[in-house]
Amino acid sequence: MVNGLSFLATDESIHRILDQKTVSHYADFQAALMKIRVLDGHYVHGERILAIDPHRIVSTSGRLMVQKKKRPDLPSTKMMQTFFCNDVITGQPLGFTLSASGNTYLQATL
Question: What is the pLDDT of residues 69-87, one digit of tens each?
Fold first, then answer.
């Protein structure tokens, strides 16, 4: 058993699992999981400081996407925009989301 899974997580097995549900289902699941973790006391109550950590990940998608540069000396490539939200005090992850690569940091954060 690796990382709590009862099987070896290959790309094919993960795609088979993910293809069974909609994006909306996974968003609802993530919100429900956070509520359970709050009730279990995984997060510090009281004043919270949250950190939003944006990452642009190179994409090999066949979709038309805005091309961005990770560094000025590299050529433009398709990028997927991801955001991680963590509690600064505990380091606990609070959420994760994807955004259109054309969105600015401020647009996607809201």
Answer: 777 887 878 877 788 888 8
CA distance 80 to 97: 11
Q: Quick one: pLDDT at residue 85?
A: 83
pLDDT tens per residue across span 3-55:
566 767 777 877 787 788 887 887 788 788 878 877 887 766 566 778 888 87
Q: Count of CB atoms within 10 A of residue 65's CB?
A: 16
Q: How far apart are CA 43 and CA 90, in angstroms?
A: 7
User: Which residue, chain included where needed, has tokens 């940091």?
Assistant: 105
The HSE-up count of residue 105 (CA atoms within 13 Å, CB side) is 7
Residue type, 35: K
Task: Measure Cα distances from 50 to 18, 43, 88, 94, 98 in Å.
Answer: 28, 12, 6, 9, 18
- DSSP bridge pairs for 53: 84
pLDDT digit string, tens, across residues 84-108: 888 887 777 777 777 765 666 677 6
